[in-house]
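Homework help board

Subject: predicted structure for assignment chain

Our instructor gave us this sequence and asked us to write out the predicted structure in token form, then describe one feature. I got the tokens but I'm not sure how to describe them. Can anyone check?
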Amino acid sequence: MKFSRSARLGALATAAASFLVIAAAPAPTQGAPGIGDPYFPQLGNGGFDARHYDLDVAYNPDTDRLDGRTTLTARATQNLSSFDLDLQKLEVTRVEVDGRRARFTRTGDEITITPRDALRKGREFTVSVTYGGIPEPLSGPIVFGSEYGWMKTTDGVFVACEPNAASSWFPSSDHPSDKATYDIRIKAPKGLTGVSNGRLVSTYDKGASTYTHWRENRPMATYLATATIGKFDVRTGRTPSGIPVYVAIDPVLANSNSVDVYAVTAAATDYWSKLFGPYPFEETGAIVDDMPEAGFSLEVQSKPVYSAVRNETTIVHELAHQWFGDSVSVAQWKDVWLNEGFATYAQWLWAEHQGTSTAHDTFLANYNARGADNAFWQTVVADPQRDTMFASAVYQRGAMTLQMLRERIGDTAFFKLLPAWTKLHRYGNADTADFVRLAEKISGQQLDGLFQTWLYTKGKPAL
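My token output:
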């Protein structure tokens, strides 16, 4: 077949253009070791987007040893020559990328993985890490001075990881901005139950072990994952509106408190669904363990964990987090008031719902309880700093900000704003500026002064 001179020239030009495109493609580079969160600069990882975790963990309470294999499905967001995962202290024995053995090095809590071939931007890939050891709980001032993370109990383990302890038991991109779905498989000694996020896929005994498989089909931040193991009395059912419920309580705690965890969980889930928008997950519930050393509870996705039987106020707080913190997660940890201030305000709304106190009266009680010289007023709520990110002001002054906003824009706009917020950022991440913009859009008011006073300015505001 013959081509005209013009056709030949056109073909040559097309080939040259293609060559230039190929030549201009960026060379593969290493993904960043952290996303640059000012509170935790090395947490999370650059160069890829986590899509799905398949966790397979085996735990022996007698030796406190954990053996695991984590397979992460991710999408490259740049041309990658290598990339990092976060893992604290546990020993890595093997890494594979797309089923092929990959080289890795270890520097502190960072694993740097080099696949045999570079990963093109946009490509989906899997990385499997085999690891083991004795997980160590984290400690320090961050979480009320308590240890947190992987905490040994008398019969198993209590797992509550906010803000940075997920990578103490599985390799991950350990920052809430990098959400993924999960399959979590737990092997424990026969007679113990492994409880995790989402819905129970299967459970069975084999030999001297019990195996459970949980699946969380909704995007989840790493710190919300759990693999709590122990002896539990389990009750399942549905809320009055039909949402599945799974409540597991350590039998040691039976009848230790007058609160009915199951009933309050069901009632609060349904009530928040009316106020905040549809329940964002497939199941609601609770994991109540006997862990007195941990003086806190955590809004674990779909099943908050409680280190003892907690009161009704705590339960409604943690369930409100399913919307504020779990479904809508912070973009950076400095915005944690969007979690804690909202969940605390939900407690005030629950008291209003129960007819015991109005949110306005609760606001005044908190405002009047502290003089102008109280250190409470010196926390900048919108940026409280790492070691004080869970200070009481983040909770209480955060809630007070919402009450001031409600009184400024009125109930109609305010109760339109809450479900609009959870719908707009459902399963995603957001920051304080996003909330201010939405509040101004829905109310039609300019609100910079209000938020500047209550979130960014030290000192007791005048009423």
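Reply (TA_rk): Your tokens look well-formed. For the description, you could write something like this. The chain has three domains: 30-147+161-224, 232-324, 329-456. That's the kind of observation they're looking for.
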